[in-house]
Amino acid sequence: MVPHASSKTSLEERWEAVSSHYIGQQHVWAALKTHFLSSDVFNAEKPTVIVLFGPSGFGKSELARRLACVIHGIEVGELETSGKLVYIHLPSFCTRDTIYSLVDPPAAHVGEGVLLSALRRNDDAVVVLDEFEKGTADAIQNLWLSAFQKKGTLRSLKEASRSISTEKVTFVLTCNIAADTILHRTKEYLRATAEEQAAMRKEWTEVCRDVCRKTMHDPFVNRVDYFFPFVPYTEEEKRRFIHLQLRRVLLDQRAKDRRIYVTPRMVKALARKLQTFHASTIECVVRPLLVEAVQKGWDTAVLTVVELVSGTEFVALPAVDKSDGVTTWNSLPGAKRALEVCELPYGATGALPPVEKRRTDMVPGGNSGGGGGGEGSKSNIGSLRATADRATQPIFRESNVVPDTRVGVDRKYALRLETAVEKELQLELNRMKELLVMKEKEIAYLKEKVFQLEKLLAFFLATTLMCLLFLSFLVGMKIVFVMGLVIFMGLWLLVEMPLQLLMGAIRVFYGVLGPVGSVIAVLVASLWGSQALRHAVVC
Q1: Which domains does the chain have, with CATH numbers?
Q2: Which residue of 92, 158, 341, 367 is most buried, as measured by CB atoms within 10 A?
């Protein structure tokens, strides 16, 4: 039941009440809230058409039900009986005859089809078309396009008078388009910033649009008001969902005079196990444990997990000894105190008798893990009871469930130490990354300087060769050849210019002249050098 979903409350109040009880997909709720609260700004005379796409089990159908609660101010359990929510599983209407039975009656029958008669009774209903992508192209062309358009009409192909306006209808189309893409990028999405997540949602929306254009064509896409991707859930959202489902199940047991509690370790194990957001996922784990508790006559039991070699196993433990050889919850160090704290009425900080502070019950800092008398006990209980009455809260909090033992204290200390070391290593890694980035920038700067120097040296060599060639015509090749050797030896020995830099300058010179020009330059230099050597030998 959704509180404050009454039609007597304002639409904005209903939005706040219902959206607070739906976990995750806040980008969808924000856009829908803006749309419906501002729907009277423009007289569109067009039905609202919404496409919800993403992996199965992410809550698309549940969101459609909550949307109907907001629009009509009706509780979830009364939606379909009142006719304000019409749910159609389109794979059940995959043939030509069955799809038209939504409007026209079956053969040899009189009256109207299922959808047409439902809209005749409630022309502002929310219509959920589940797995819409499995519908036929013929149905989209002849049935849905006219229903989704401005001043839309759902009409029969057999009888012209059998039609109804869809202007006030809200169509919610659910499909599994882009499901694999979204699941494949789950970790990337959860690690991304808010801006990066918005960009990924926009990318997935375009993927869905493209698929719809290919299979259902542009007229259909143009009639859709919103494409909303259903994104992966965070670990915190998973835990909130589990708490919500467990609270519903365990409060039902409380009404039957059975007090059942769930430890945080079990909630974490369920969060790891949870893949789809169906209540049946939680119930299939809890139901066998509840049946075991009922069969063994346990009026008070604790649901928890044990770590085995084969993996994690969910178990139910009786709170008190039943003389059947089963390990009880109260036999664990500090567990009885945790159970008593959960049962403590709100504000009754002194209701419990003080317990002896044993070494196994102590936690670092001087506080008792199982509780104690005096001010420490009161502050501990007060912090545990800050938000809810333990008499109506069957789920343990982290701080009062796991009993503190010396092994537990040592383990906590080791975990703190590991966390501190991990933080130091992470800081050191970040510093090394920054240093590497600076070094890379320095290397890039030096490479640029060397390249500029090679260009300058190439210009110097080209100028020197031109001067020597010109002088060879004035003073003779022999003298010019000797001058060239002197210049080369001076650069190499006196200036100590590395040969690698000279080779780099030659490469730059080659890049300027190109292959053909370089060949011509080498031929000219070879011819000139051979002439100079010949003259030197003759002389």
Answers
A1: 11-232 (3.40.50.300), 236-409 (no CATH), 412-538 (no CATH)
A2: 341
